[in-house]
Amino acid sequence: MTCKKEKISVRKKVLKKYVPSGKSFGRLYFLMARKEYIEPDPLLFLHKYRKKEVREVVALIACSLAFGRVEAILASIEKVLRILSSLPGKDFAEVLKKNSPEELQKVFADFQYRFVKGSSMALFLAGAGRLLNLYGSLENAFLAGYDKKNDEDILPALENFGKNLCYYFPESKHFLFPVPSGKSACKRPFLMLRFLVRNRDVDTGTWKKIPPKKLLVPLDTHMFRMAKVLGFTSLKSAGLPAAKEITEKFASFDPEDPVKFDFPLTRFGINPAFRGKNIVEVLQELEEEEEK
């Protein structure tokens, strides 16, 4: 898979005419959904831990901080985990279950990542500890708001989970874990769900009771820009409606696992091996290879 290093936005005449096929996307996934291409990605942290309750705590921390430059994101995650490691408890889940909001605020007093202060991170983690004590796992806490028969997607469960998670904040809401009613695209919560629910290739399959077909694509400005280039959305902003529309397009390629395409597409923004390459040229080249 070779392609010239040029930005996705440059070949306007070609981009307007090109309609990607399910075959080219399937081939893209086959070639790129490999653990060797994870780095640098917060997903790396999940693969360091095997215990379910620990891995889901790590996923929550990693995805809540997944904004900004990737190098800074990884450093902030490492710092949070290092602080938690200094507290009594055999693992991260036990630490959150045993330590009060006040105790967490003391150890996070000097923490800050961009505009997220240590006091907010402490209350956020205290909310996770509260759910672990109430439900035994974050998955069980999420499932408490999930109606398997009637929910078309995970939005109602996400709304319930997010508000319970942010129990210690005013109005049970916080930037660290946006919910659908807040008009956010919910990129970071959707990313956490992809990491935990999908059970193939790079993702962990830690949560067993939610089908991948009910997930929605984690949408940020980079993914939105590529989706516009590929004709996957006609909307003007990267909000929840756009995330739904793009997920529907992905579902036309794989209805049982639509968000699997998130991983290969996001490599074009963060992995040095693919950064700066033209997604349209890559897909066209894959189609040509299929025809040979």
What report would you give on this structure?
By secondary structure, the protein is an all-alpha fold. The protein folds into two domains: 113 residues, no CATH class; 175 residues. It is built from 15 helices and two strands. Strands 1-2 form a two-stranded antiparallel sheet. A hairpin with a 2-residue loop joins β1 and β2. The radius of gyration is 19 Å and the shape is globular. The chain starts with 11 loop residues before the first helix and ends with a helix. The N terminus is likely disordered.
Layout of strands and helices, then pairs:
Elements: H1 12-17, H2 22-32, H3 43-46, H4 52-64, H5 70-85, H6 92-98, H7 101-107, E1 112-113, E2 116-117, H8 118-135, H9 138-143, H10 155-165, H11 187-197, H12 221-230, H13 240-253, H14 262-270, H15 279-291
Antiparallel strand pairs: 1-2
Helix pairs in contact: 2-15, 4-11, 6-8, 7-8
Helix content: 40-55%
User: Number of folding domains?
Assistant: 2
For the biggest sheet, the summary is: 2 strands, antiparallel
Low-confidence stretches: 2-15
Beta strand %:
under 5%
The count of DSSP E runs of length 2 or more, i.e. the number of strands, is 2
Mean pLDDT value:
92
Q: Whole-Å distance between the termini?
A: 14 Å
The helix count comes to 15
**What are the secondary-structure elements, in order, as H or E?**
HHHHHHHEEHHHHHHHH
Q: What does the overall shape look like? A: globular
Spatial ordering of strands, largest sheet:
1-2
Structural class: mainly alpha
